[in-house]
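Newbie here. two chains, one complex. Structure please?
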Amino acid sequence: MNNNKTIHQIESEIVEEFALFDSWDDKYEYIIDMGKKLPPLDDQYKLDINKVKGCQSTVWLVSDYKDGKVFYKAESDAVIVKGLISMLIRVLSGHSPGEIIDAKMDFINRIGMTTHLAQTRSNGLLAMVRQMKNFALAYKLKDAANV
Amino acid sequence: MTEATTIQKGIDVYAIRQQFPVLEREVKGKPLIYFDNAATSQKPQMVIDALVNYYTGYNANIHRGIHTLAEEATAAYEASRDAARQFINASSREEIIFTRGTTEGINLVAYTWGRQNLKAGDEVIISGMEHHSNIVPWQIICEEKNAVLKVVPITDEGELVIDEYEKLLSRKTKLVAVVHASNSLGTVNPVKKVIDLAHKAGAVVLIDGAQSTVHLDIDVQQLDCDFFVFSSHKMYGPTGVGVLYGKKHLLEAMPPFQGGGEMIKEVTFAKTTYNDLPYKYEAGTPNIADVVAFKAAIDFIQQLGKENIRQHEEELLQYATASLEQVPGLTIVGRAKEKVSVVSFIIENIHPQDVGILLDNQGIAVRTGHHCTQPLMDRFCIPGTARASFAVYNTKEEIDRLVNGIHKVIKMLS
């Protein structure tokens, strides 16, 4: 997934996509659409241990590490959050732990989501990013230990 | 929706709205509709003026100063105490303790009365619809004292099961702490009955009036509750101020909550004697400005008349309930016979958070989530609700916009 593009390039793509919308209604329609298209997470992963703390809705997030790249899967019981997760996965999944740890993730600001979503909810968004980066850090440390 | 244009009896809601500057603003390019009043109400100009006047005219530390500003500030601060006493009809001003809010009032009672009076095997009764702030302090003190916390169940409609409450009461019951009006469901509990039954069992009673004080007439002497707690910010007043009412003989017997200035009579390194009521429970420099402005909030309510406010809010509640019931897939959570102006709802296959975000996108502020009542949400097997709560400045037109907004949300998410 996204093997040929850098994280920064994918972030810019999303920013450009959002720039096409005139209204917040349209932006939300787009996010909802992405949320609906997010593949469901297998029930076996829907465990308390996979929940991201700090979100008003329930978010499950799991990761996998293959050939030096991290892959994420996630789901939520709220559609808009699913749409946001879908963007995070699109940006980060398929990159190396180092790239993920260094990712600025400023597209969230640039599409207006941090200012638009209330503090509590955007904290949920940031909690998801933090958790995704934590997975990457764990894989990086594991690699270092195995060298 | 012609009914929406009916002018309300008793009060002129459009004139009232003019007193709330924030209601003029827009959110997301649309006129703000503020339906999160159960979380905190907006503030009228007279409350804002009282705050500004205090800081611009007579800011000083209270009680010990001998200069003019200190005297003026002290007089204003103590005038708020008198206003609060009269507002809930306490028998004396010494029974009015200023706190940071309802939560601090409950903690004060738990940490003073609870620590002094609870022992192993004693029981504390709360209800299944309590806010976390009327659960956790009791859990903490019960754990410390090896006392037992018992919970009165509630019905599917969201009312207390009084029969079960009676069964829980025994000689072991030392304290009953129950919410007057539920923040999540709107249910008005039969607190007079709760109190009388508890007293028969020999227990003292704390009533959480955070949601009721702005809507209902409160007479602590008639209720005969032992403690009554409420917050200024939910009744058009500033944040950071609450009142703990306690019966004088209980407050006198209880140990202090916090030590410091103001609450002492005499301090030596060997021994400290404590100040008289109410100052014994007001350690340190209090939140003077906000307490002073709190009186303006009480004045605001009294000028409108509580009965007029209640009538207006009841009309809004009935109108909102009837309108929301027409929305396909929408279920109102909390169908008690007597309610304050709170409507909690869920929509089939839609998460409350999505409802909240998309209503906000239309300029409509509601609250979503568990409303700090997680055990209650568990009782109804739901993750949370969306909640619209109405104040004196809300209108039927706004409720129409909410209903249209919900239709739009459902369309966007389907």
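Moderator note: The first helix of chain A runs from residue 7 to 19. The interface with chain B takes residues 24-25, 28-29, 32, 56-58, 77-81, 117-118, 121 of chain A (CB under 8 Å). Thread marked as resolved.
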